[in-house]
Design brief:
alpha/beta; Aspartate Aminotransferase, domain 2; binds pyridoxal-5'-phosphate; 37% helix; Aspartate Aminotransferase, domain 1
Length: 372
């Protein structure tokens, strides 16, 4: 049996007529860059998140970068984040000439360990970017409390957690701003590149709206040094349709995670992901932890099962970040996770049989049960 890591074709097949119609509507109105389709999606997505505003931008990296810029973060400033995330979180910080400062993560939640914040704080610290990794919200209350005490901004990187909840509130709405990516493989994905910022702060919204559009609020009157980070009309029209299926997709992901968890119950060699008691996890990624990770990975690939490692090298040990001066051993939890993580197929359209087959293949490779 062949099991892909992700199957976007299966996701789009039942929507193809609606997507076709939506794209044609954009072509007929010629509203390609920003415009009414983007404005409509912004309203819908803000309402979905329970936020006052959403600002559509070109991608998730833009969302993080423009938010930092709009909050005035720049040269000489420090921004605290985690080392086990996609590189974009750190790139957005360095791209506004600030310095990323990492803190280690929790062993079981894989997200920012709030107890580590104190020793990373300096007079230059301006903001914290917790990452809701794999669809699990970070432990926000202690992070927000720490930020309040020290006058720091909190920007949520929720690129992997559309629709996840922390104590009943959607991620992205807990801090000063929440940054989303609609990269095709995300829980809510465009048919290309797109991203958004959500916020309740009208001034921050205004500033990001200007920064994404060459620093202008009125055409050809450029009051800020901006850039071009607008969202495409076609992507917005597509996202309006796909947003209606996000909840259903997240529920299916949760069911699949439960089936995997049950299949691995009692197998000590496989550690399954935990849903924190404050969290509504949306399983963008279902990552197990195994000692013989590379061997298991090889066996799955031999059996035509797609899998991945998120991420094999923590950010502080990436070559591009060498100038930050971190060395091996700086963040033992994140470094250990990078050795043990293995992401299994996870997407709403997975079947029970496929999950059973993947789980059996993993179990047999770690020495439990008969060989496939
Ligand atoms: C995908 C992702 C991003 C970047 O989003 P793009 O749309 O690809 O720019 C940022 N942070 C995290 C954690 C991500 O997973």
């Amino acid at each position: 049996m062949k099991v892909p890591f992700l199957d976007l074709k299966a996701q789009h097949a039942p929507l193809i007529d609606k997507l076709d119609r939506a794209i044609r509507e954009v072509i007929e109105s010629s509203a390609f860059a920003g415009g009414p389709f983007v404005e409509r999606f912004e309203k819908e997505f803000a309402a979905y998140c329970g936020s006052q505003y959403a600002i559509g931008v070109g991608n998730g990296t833009d969302a993080l970068w423009l938010t930092l810029l709009a909050l005035g973060i720049g040269e000489g400033d420090e921004v605290i984040t985690v080392p086990n995330t996609f590189i974009a979180t750190a790139e957005a910080i360095t791209y506004c000439k600030a310095r990323p400062v990492f803190v280690d993560v929790g062993e079981n939640t894989f997200t920012m360990n709030p107890a580590e914040l104190k020793r990373s704080l300096t007079a230059r610290t301006k903001a914290i970017i917790p990452v809701h990794l794999f669809g699990q919200p970070a432990n926000m209350d202690p992070i927000l409390e720490f930020a309040r005490m020290h006058g720091l901004f909190v920007i949520e990187d929720t690129a992997q957690a559309h629709g996840a909840e922390y104590k009943g509130r959607k991620t992205g709405t807990l801090g000063d701003a929440g940054c989303f990516s609609f990269y095709p493989g995300k829980n809510l994905g465009a048919l290309g590149e797109a991203g958004a910022v959500v916020t309740n702060d009208a001034e921050l919204r205004k500033k990001i709206q200007m920064l994404r559009d060459h620093g202008q609020a009125r055409k050809y009157h450029h009051t800020l040094a901006g850039w071009n980070c607008r969202m495409d009309g076609i992507q917005a029209a597509v996202l309006s349709i796909k947003l209606r299926h996000l909840e259903e997709g997240n529920l299916l992901r949760r069911e699949h995670a439960l089936q995997y968890n049950q299949a691995f119950a009692g197998i000590d060699e496989v550690a399954t992901p935990l849903e924190a008691n404050y969290a509504w996890h949306v399983y963008h990624v279902y990552a197990i932890r195994v000692q013989e990770r590379d061997e298991v990975r090889r066996r799955l690939e031999e059996n035509e099962i797609g899998c991945a490692v998120h991420y094999p090298i923590p950010i502080h040990l990436q070559e591009a970040c060498r100038s930050l001066g971190y060395t091996k051993g700086a963040f033992p939890v994140a470094e250990n996770l990078a050795k043990e993580f293995l992401s299994l197929p996870m997407f709403p359209e997975l079947t029970e049989q496929q999950i059973e087959y993947v789980a059996r293949c993993v179990s047999e490779t770690v020495g439990v049960g008969a060989l496939v």
